[in-house]
Amino acid sequence: SNEGDFSTAYEYWKKAAEMGDADSHYQLSALYNKDDGFERDEKKQLYHMEEAAIGGHPIARYNLGCVEGNKGRNERAMKHFIIAA
To answer: Global pTM?
Structure first.
């Protein structure tokens, strides 16, 4: 079962994210976006994506640009894309 793997990974990523690790925030955002046995939570997913982007994670920053673009906020999206590049 993959559930144990997610549980263990979650605990490590959560601790590292609490210490400000941008990659751990990114991993948590991806985990909250999955639909395969882990709790899907859009609010937590976005929170961790934003924290990862603030911490300098370029893929998280790009993904935020996509989120903003999908919401029709093209100017904000473009700013995220420029920072991610």
So the answer is: 0.85
